[in-house]
Amino acid sequence: MHPHATRRRARPRRLLATLLALAAAACLGLAPGGPSPDAAPAPAARADTGTGTGPGAGPGHTVSYDRYSLLIDGERTLLQGAEFHYFRLPSPDTWRDVLEKYKAAGFNTVSLYFHWGYHSPKRGVYDFTGVRDVDRLLDVVEDVGLYAVVRPGPYINAETSGGGLPAWLKNVEGRARSSDAGYTAAYREWLTEINRIIVPHQLTRGGPVVLYNVENEYAQNTDAQYMQDLQDLAHAQGVDVPITHNQCCQASWTPTWAEGLGAVDIPGLDDYPQSFECQDADTVWGPWSDGITRRLKDDAPVYAAEYQGGAIDLNNAGYEACRQLTGPAYMKYFYKSNLIKSGATLFSYYMGFGGTNWGYLAQPNDVYTSYDYGAMITEDRQLTGKYDEFKLQSHFLRAASGHLTETDAAAPAEVPAPDNPALETASRVNPRTGARFTLLRHADPPATTDDSAVLDYGDGRRLPVRVDGRDAKVLLSDYPFGGQRLALSSSELMTHTRTGGRDVALLYGRAGEAGRTVLEYGSRPKAEVLAGDADVSYARGRGELTLDYVHEGLTRVRITGGGRPPLLLLLGTDATAAEFWQSADGVLVRGTDLLRDARVRGRTARLRADTGEPGRVEVFTDARRMTVNGAPVRARRTASGSLTAFLPGPRPVRLPELSEPARWRQAAGAPEVAPRFDDSGWKDADSTLHADDHGFHHGSLWYRGRFTATGDETELKLNAITGRRGIYQVWADGRYLGSAQGGVQADSDPPVNEDPGPGTFTLPDAAPGEEVVVSVLVQNMGHNDDWIADDTRFKQPRGLVRAELPGSGADISWKIQGARGGEDLADRKRGPLNTGGLYGERHGWHLPRPPASGDWRRAGPDVAAGTVSWYRTSFRPGLPRGQDTALALRFGEPPAGHRLLMYLNGWNVGQYGAGVGPQRDFTLPAGLLRADGRNTLALAVVAEDDSVVRLPSLVVKGNHRTG
Ligand code: GAL
């Protein structure tokens, strides 16, 4: 169980009140100052793909901060970011794809955990090549034009094995996450390695890194000296951007690392208001928090370091339920409340893309192979409805960041008041520009009613508004942009841009709701409704042009004269607004499934875009020509002053059928159960049965025990710890005795290592003096995390922990076998978490090359209890060039009798089957998958009971023509 799940749910109301009080305290404004508004400093892409003054522009940059915001080169900057785990996407080429998708959603930042255990199979051994090349990752971040928050731990949690601590650390004396000497020496190794890579990528040296996060939710069993040491080391190694920490979760939890020994520059706060109860997605509404980010430190900006962007699937509801739990309604209500109530100007959402727990990356207690997380981008790299909502909100933050990065909470008298108590408002005002941002939502957070009101602005201005169901809006008033001034609007702003001497603004509202927008002019302007319907009126006295309309499709109004530059006003719904994109250069585009980039050079608009089906694209520019993905397309000008073209969709994909047993070969894979199996090369396990002590840290473990029968043996009592979802199986003299669930992380305090009780297995009769050989296959599902920093859970052993022959005086002598080479990796490319110690894994049966051993025959569907069977096949997907086609392996309902491991070209891409989790579709990561060539698939089927193996088929998860 994830520790949050029990702890946060139990939080008393009193603490909620404290949180609210703290948030209110955070609303005390301070003196103004700083650069001009209406500039949205976004990092520019690197010189080879763009221009600008963000990362890549050269050294000499500064990152500083004050109470309001981060300042990059002295310029107020709002960070809108999301978390990304490179280790859950074992394909560096697709890092760029996902990060471009972040950028296209309007994000300007990515938050990156670095995973110690992923890089270090053995003390003193570190690998930063191939899928572990994080130097390349930071280059890609810079190329794409994002800022980076780096989070090298050493502890990261993240539902990954050991919370990111390497398994060899279990054998190191000294409490992890403390200043104990043994642990200190160990983590200094890691930080020295990773800081060496990070430091040159800091913004101060021309790179993308703007913040450095130490530790993770370090709130229990804390050691301030350790927090200080981490920072001293970072500074000594050249870290000179502000240091941050992500605190969890309750007001009562101290320290917050805002002051005293171990304090960081910008303390951040994590918040997961929706919990992880995805199975109750229909009803859950903010049980863990009211969605307010507290101010932890007076002279630092408010940083929502990990704000819930999805959920782990604690109860096997499936990630679509988690996506619903954390869907657009939640995003609107909680994210907008955060923005206005706390004045936060740094945000990072956990996760933007979750990825895959390939190999043994998963921490066993909370997650299974997929770490999709119900995020805005699926594990298959596809965009969802949540992505659309992020697009609306992130583009707004970007467009308005010049105003939003310095706001004070408005005094109650200054807040537009609704005349209906069912609704409530709160406002923030930029003290220099006067721009006002008003949050409108239900007064009772979970209310689902449809309520309307008139907002009274206190100066004679009134605005009809409506909140239908769980929703929230940020309404602008007195908002200057480009050459215009928005007096007020009941529509929300997505973005605005300036092109060819005119302004274009895109506002939106819920479909079918009425909207009103009022603009200020010196004299009556000319307003032409080009598409859709809007009533236009002008009040000469106030100089106000009022548009009344219903949000429906896309209404276009061209406004000229009135003493201002021309304005094209686009009034859409959530859905039509979400069809828009705005490139880093500010080019506004409608259409395509993904706009990776758009620039106007001379008279040509150059787009890089993905299309999932044929359709129109429209570019709001005065350019005359268009290229898409480098090729010219036929484009024409429109009455709205835009350029439009028709783009083709992708070619269809035809996949080979894999589910026929006839195309697979099969071999038996558990020779270890035979009494005469040669285990002379195995390690002696008499001194300790614990696998980690022998350097076998991940995946399946084999034990072989021998005893000389006294004749009194009737049963064998065993206890193995596997982590949740693990099993172990037992044979005697080649006969299968059965299986049992392995021990898990206990929730008791202190945790019990030997839970549940031992498995008892009936032994076959043996005559006195006869040698009996026992074989045991134990699944190690991964290592517990160390969330409470008590060391005990993390250091819980794996493998057999007890073996007894009740009633017999015989001693069992044990040998152990695990992944080939143990800590001295046999396969450095795929790394320490890819394989365990199954016979086929030790002999390379999972690899693309033909196996040099094993008796391979035509495959059949039946597997017998107490067997390990390997299946292999190869296929050519023949995916069309110039397209990004996402493939997955689809199995049936998880079977009762067996579980299996699957390998694509030697990479362990998942575990499926009895008790492993609800997952049926397994992502085949592009990059590991050869789109055009030959691929090898191998399955290792571990059968507890007689059962039928249903072989998987290939399915398309997404197909796009792409640049
Ligand atoms: C946070 C933690 C993350 C992750 C998340 C839940 O508390 O910092 O690493 O575990 O919870 O997915």
Describe this protein's structure:
This protein has 963 residues and is mainly beta. The chain folds into 4 domains: 373 residues, Glycosidases (TIM Barrel, Alpha-Beta Barrel); 242 residues, beta-galactosidase, domain 2, CATH 2.102.20; 143 residues, Jelly Rolls (Sandwich), CATH 2.60.120.260; 150 residues, Jelly Rolls (Sandwich). Helices cover 13% and strands 33% of the residues. Helix 3 packs parallel to helix 5 and helix 9 packs parallel to helix 10. Belongs to the glycosyl hydrolase 35 family. InterPro entries: Betagal_dom2, Betagal_dom2_sf, BetaGal_dom3, BetaGal_dom3_sf, BetaGal_jelly_roll_dom, Galactose-bd-like_sf, GH, Gly_Hdrlase_35_cat. It is an enzyme of class 3 (hydrolase). Its EC number is 3.2.1.23.
